[in-house]
Amino acid sequence: MKMLTTCLAATVLVLSACHSAGDLSTKTQNQSQPMEENITKSPFGTLPDGTSVDLYTLTNKNGLEAKITNYGGIVVSLKTPDRNGKFEDIVLGYDSLAQYVADNPYFGAIVGRYGNRIAKGRFTLEGKTYTLAKNNGENHLHGGLKGFDKAVWEASPFKANGGVSLTLSRISPDMEEGYPGNLELRVIYSLTNDDKFQIEYSAASDKSTHINLTHHSYFNLTGNAKRDILGHVLNINSRAYMPVDSGLIPLGFYKMLAGTPFDFQQPKPIGQDINAADEQLKFGQGYDHCWVLTREAAAIPDGKMFLAATVYEPESGRVMEISTTEPGIQFYSGNFLDGKYKGKGGVVYQDRWGFCLETQHMPDSPNHPEYPPTVLSPGFIYSSATVHKFSVK
Ligand code: BGC
Fold first, then answer.
1. Residue ID of nearest Cα to ligand 1 atom 10
2. What is the three-class DSSP state of 228?
3. Domains along the chain with CATH numbers
4. How many CB atoms lie within 10 A of CB 115?
5. Would you call 130 exposed, middle or buried from its count of C-beta atoms within 10 A (0-12, 13-18, 19+)?
6. Is the pLDDT of residue 343 over 80?
């Protein structure tokens, strides 16, 4: 395919400047004293096919630290301080590459080509029907059997004004996992000196395709996953969510939140209503639904940054605010963590020990022309960004 000559990310977003990747790695490796903000690279392991994979450590000037591997673009750890200044890891994951390869419920990964579900694993685009893997019952989930979470990305660290960044890029070939079009992808992770962990996605395709990229960290703000996440206080900037069928495919309409267990318009502990007698909670075994962000109330259109959700963990004091350019957010309360995942430091992740807030377009959009569109046509650039801002109170 014709490679884009411009820096995709810079064309789209202004969160970070586009720099040449090479300089920083050389500078940081040659320095005996670490810089205030820093990025280093170390080996993370070797895949069964012999490919070597790396781990990048991004540190900002306040000591926040993100470790990211170029296998699946996985955020392996993210350390932030509690209200006493104690740094702990706030995402679930594994210690080794082998564990990620063996069985990963998308811990920390880049999810694509289409994050979330596509009903019956098919869609019709420009008169042609495409068949995708049914890897979630009779539906397609998170890009298929070998989605972007299992791909090896090319990585280039760089330093931008006010932080450190890692660009991950790859070309998803035409018909990969059944999706049309060679898709040139770029994802930039940045850790800024004002304690933001941000993700910028951009892509271009040589054929019309569908795209819906998201990030799949399971957060647990207690730090080092001490217990379940039911005490975390959540506020979602939304007045409506998308009810689903028993296979978690949206029924096709929005339901107002008021008076339902799904109402997080005011901050509320995740556990407060999670066991309410509600068919929708039964289908998801808890929360596993897409909330429609209330942009119109703030007069902020899709594509512009909008504060989507705030999470507060009372014991540690940690606060995470998530802003996004996306129209929706999937709140998944870790209902399928059932004690079978032995995570970092040997901690076994039980039911609801992590939650995901996946910024995205609506699930099954390829089969719903009435939803905000997810088609990417040749000559256009897909762009999306999400910022996680950390603080304490
Ligand atoms: C989905 C869940 C799924 C989880 C892990 C989430 O994004 O909404 O239904 O179990 O990912 O695959």
1. 336
2. coil
3. 2-15+31-392 (2.70.98.10)
4. 29
5. middle
6. yes
Count of CB atoms situated within 10 Å of the CB of 103: 10
Q: How many CB atoms lie within 10 A of CB 42?
A: 9
Rounded to 5 degrees, φ, ψ at 115 are -70, 140
Is residue 126 flagged as an active site residue? Answer: no
Transcribe 268-322 into DSSP letters.
Answer: EETTSSTTSS-HHHHHHTS-EEEEEE-TGGGT--TTS-EEEEEEE-TTT-EEEEE
Q: Is 358 a catalytic residue?
A: yes
Asked if 350 and 225 count as a contact pair (C-beta separation under 8 A), the reply is: no
Q: Which of 140, 177, 358, 388 is catalytic?
A: 358
User: In which element (H, E) is residue 23 found?
Assistant: helix 22-30
78: three-class secondary structure by DSSP: strand
Closest listed residue to residue 288, CA positions, set 367, 216, 370: 216
How would you classify the pairing of strands 52-59 and 65-69?
antiparallel
**Of residues 115, 113, 120, 111, the one with CA closest to residue 139:** 120
Q: Using one digit for the tens of pLDDT, what is the confidence trace for 220-279? A: 999 999 999 999 999 999 999 999 999 999 999 999 999 999 999 999 999 999 999 999
pTM of the model: 0.92
Closest atom of ligand 1 to 336 CA is: 10
Three-state DSSP class for residue 95: coil
Residues with CB under 6 Å of ligand 1 are: 105-106, 248, 288, 330, 332, 336, 356, 358
User: Is residue 23 within 8 Å of residue 156, measured between CB atoms?
Assistant: no
The answer to whether 253 and 243 have CB atoms below 8 angstroms apart is yes
Strand, coil or helix: 100: helix
Amino acid at 128: K
Chain segment 140-190, per-residue pLDDT in tens: 999 999 999 999 999 999 998 799 999 999 999 999 999 999 999 999 999
